[in-house]
């Protein structure tokens, strides 16, 4: 920031353009995509502040009459502090980044904090179009899914828990304002329910309930032929809890494929189905994966006897197999 200040004082143009066509202001906002460490992150907003004070424009004309914002193409690297500076400087909140996303879409993608919620509310007050879809046809709802799942509504700390619930309620109300289309799909044919089901987070269960209440169908299959439930069960990161599987099982179709059906049985503690399937399921790696998600000692014991490998002794003791430990 000190260097930027010296250059501006020496007469550098705050609206200058680099050889690749990128404006100086855009480079500052993006942090050159290389920032790391708190001291560098703190310097990026300082640079943006100096450029704005020196007269840098908040957006530039693009093709087809479209106004372009200096936000990075995916919007992932821009700091919320930079978004705040631009909004406070009177930026056109409907200006788009290279992906066609406006300020609301980029902001709602950020980690939920009181500051980002307030910023989002200010962007709405400034007249942002919440119904806008980016160049790939994705709406505000699709950008909001990761953030909706993050508030720690299950925290042991009561204050944290209450603040998280308040943030989630506020975000859900904003999503309603965006007039979400329950039938909307992303480029891979996923509904909002697909995206939430594979997203780990303290509030995922609540978000799934919310989306179903909005009217998102549970029986829609994406381009890979999977419903939201099947996508969750087959997710490389692994399914996370029995509640998610139960929530999706009741209103939607059962998954196809032995592995998906067995994982569902494990998650819902359906020991009768599990026992039947273990008669022909012998893949030890998959059985071991199932063991990680066992919801009872009975299910775990079945999996261990069928050949699942425990990850540690604690897992064996937890599921009552002291003879294996000895």
Overview of this protein structure:
The protein has 326 residues and is mainly α. The chain is 50% helix and 1% strand. It contains 18 helices and 2 strands. It has helices at residues 2-9, 24-30, 38-53, 80-88, 103-108, 114-125, 140-148, 158-177, 192-197, 204-214, 228-234, 242-249, 258-267, 271-277, 284-291, 297-306, 313-318, 322-325, and strands spanning 60-61, 67-68. α3 (38-53) runs parallel beside α4, α4 (80-88) packs parallel to α6 (114-125) and α7 (140-148) packs antiparallel against α8. The longest helix is centred in the middle third of the chain and has 20 residues, at 158-177. The chain starts with a helix and ends with a helix.
Identify low-pLDDT runs: 35-39, 321-326
N/C terminus separation: 63 Å
Q: Output the strand order for the largest sheet.
A: 1-2
Round the Cα radius of gyration to an integer and report it.
Answer: 24 Å
Q: What shape does the CA trace take?
A: elongated
Largest sheet, in brief, is: 2 strands, antiparallel
Number of strands: 2
Structural class of the helices, strands and pairings? Answer: mainly alpha
Question: Could you give a quick summary of the protein structure above?
Answer:
By secondary structure, the chain is an all-alpha fold.
Key attributes of the depicted protein:
326 residues; mainly alpha; 18 helices; 2 strands; elongated
Question: How would you summarize the topology of this molecule?
Answer:
Elements: H1 2-9, H2 24-30, H3 38-53, E1 60-61, E2 67-68, H4 80-88, H5 103-108, H6 114-125, H7 140-148, H8 158-177, H9 192-197, H10 204-214, H11 228-234, H12 242-249, H13 258-267, H14 271-277, H15 284-291, H16 297-306, H17 313-318, H18 322-325
Antiparallel strand pairs: 1-2
Helix pairs in contact: 2-3, 3-4, 4-6, 7-8, 10-12, 11-12, 13-14, 15-16
């Amino acid at each position: 920031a000190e260097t930027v200040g010296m250059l501006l004082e020496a007469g550098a143009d705050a609206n200058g353009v680099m050889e690749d066509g990128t404006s100086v202001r855009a480079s500052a906002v993006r942090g050159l995509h290389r920032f790391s460490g708190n001291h560098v992150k703190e310097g990026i907003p300082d640079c943006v502040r100096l450029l704005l004070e020196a007269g840098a424009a908040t957006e530039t004309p693009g093709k087809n009459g479209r106004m372009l914002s200096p936000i990075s193409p995916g919007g992932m690297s821009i700091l919320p502090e930079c978004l705040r500076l631009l909004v406070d400087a009177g930026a056109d909140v409907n200006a788009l980044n290279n992906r066609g996303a406006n300020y609301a879409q980029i902001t709602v993608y950020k980690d939920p904090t009181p500051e980002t919620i307030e910023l989002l509310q200010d962007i709405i007050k400034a007249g942002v179009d919440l119904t806008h879809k980016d160049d790939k046809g994705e709406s505000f709802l699709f950008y909001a899914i990761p953030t909706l799942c993050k508030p720690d509504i299950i925290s042991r700390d009561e204050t944290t828990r209450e603040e998280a619930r308040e943030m989630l309620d506020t975000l859900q109300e904003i999503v309603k304002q965006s007039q979400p289309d329950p039938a909307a799909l992303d480029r891979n044919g996923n509904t909002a329910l697909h995206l939430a089901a594979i997203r780990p987070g303290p509030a995922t269960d609540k978000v799934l309930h919310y989306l179903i209440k909005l009217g998102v169908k549970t029986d829609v299959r994406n381009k890979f032929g999977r419903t939201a439930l099947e996508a969750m069960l087959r997710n490389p990161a692994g399914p996370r809890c029995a509640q998610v599987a139960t929530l999706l099982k009741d209103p939607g179709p059962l998954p196809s494929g032995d592995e998906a059906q067995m994982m569902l049985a494990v998650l819902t503690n359906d020991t009768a189905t599990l026992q039947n399937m273990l008669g022909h399921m012998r893949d030890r790696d998959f059985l071991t994966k199932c063991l990680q998600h066992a919801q009872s000692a009975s299910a775990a014991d079945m999996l261990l006897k069928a050949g699942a490998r425990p990850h540690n002794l604690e897992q064996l003791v937890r599921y009552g197999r002291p003879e294996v430990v000895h």
